Amino acid sequence: MFKNKVKQLNNIKQFELLIIVFMSFLLSACVTKTNSSLTDKADPDVAVERYVQLGLEYIKRDDLHRARKHLSRALEINPVDASANASMGLIYHQEGENEKAEGLFKKAIESDMNYTPGRTYYGAYLFSQQRYKEALQQFQLAAKDTRYEGRAQVFSNIALCQIKLGSNSLGIEAYQKALQLDRINGVALSGLTELYIQDGEYEKSQHYYNRLVRLIRENGMRHTSQSLWQGIRISYNFKSRDQALGLAYLLNEMYPDSEENSLAHSLLNSGLINSIQTNNSGTRK
Hints:
This protein is 78% helix and 0% strand. By secondary structure, it is mainly alpha-helical.
């Protein structure tokens, strides 16, 4: 029963990780400097590029109304522009208009098969629809673009697809490739930690967990409920009771209503009961 709960939780966390990665694609596509004073006299290609940049910036802010306004203007100038269609697909995806979203993603890819962000958006959409094989195909094609800045995240998404398709070993390979491209990729570090815990390879899991903890400390980041839960399981396995209890205390303080907190209580309580039973058995002898 306990293992089934952990497995279900891991499935949820994998989807959450993909959403994080998906948003990182979005942020990498956005720019901080845009020129909103566009006129009809501007070069059409430049105008489309700037309208798309503005649209993505508003999507990042969750202002879909203004995002649609700018992307619609881009599509008026060039109805087949890959970046404009793919970005409009993001809006429809967020609004739950899945058929329209998929149609726009496909249109973007058909108009420019080398537009890598479009493939990543489409891959994330397919993953959300539990079409894992199709999502994997899109991410694998995107990964071939060695000039794409978000390539490390693409490999993290490939890992998530492989895990969903039942191949943890291929998932590990993809995460390791992500780390080759970006040594401080938190998604990959967390993913490898989790997979090695599931495989019972705790020395390897501790290696990647230590790197994850160092990343969190050096960047002033905050532990997630998952990272604390990972630390608890690793500490518990190595019988580092004080460390496990310390992490459990943090988990209870920071995420009292989380499923990880409930699982941690179950794990540590079962360990305490087993310890008591073992001691009592030894006393009776």
